[in-house]
Amino acid sequence: MIKFKTTIGQLDYLNMKYLEVPKEVVDEFGTLKIRLVCTVNNSLNFQCGLMALGEGKAYISINAKRMKELGVKLGDEVHVALKKDDSKYGMDVPEELAELLKQDYEGKLRFDKLTPAMQRYIIYHVSGVKSPNLRLDRAIMLIENLKKSVEGKETFRFLLGKD
């Protein structure tokens, strides 16, 4: 586990708040292509990845909901602890999607062939609603569209039914 202090910054061109990860921390992990578990102020844990910030530094995005949970605002200093995420997908799979993939052999085969980023996109999109019924509806829509897509040419837009 690597611990450091940082301040909450803002990337204006993305209208996004972030936690800056110093070059020394990035160097310790040896790559930006890593999934991590981030703990902020010893109280909030979430799964994340590193994005290049320039000059060897990186950033982790932090949304308004998490900032509110922490009681912090732009410019505040926070304590961060990072450790490698050893979970299969780099995030928790909603129960509804996991059950669908158990029952839909073709859907599971296609899901397993996706890039890790595309798999996380599906997981994230299904997780994005509170209602179990809506999570199941989203899971079914995404997996059905995945099965209709050309293997190796899947796009987010097609999975969402927008192509």
UniProtKB/TrEMBL annotation:
Signal peptide as annotated in the record: none
Pfam families the UniProt entry points to: DUF1905 (PF08922), OmdA (PF13376)
InterPro entries linked to this entry: AF2212/PG0164-like_sf, DUF1905
Protein name: DUF1905 domain-containing protein
The organism's taxonomic lineage, starting at the top: Bacteria, Pseudomonadati, Bacteroidota, Cytophagia, Cytophagales
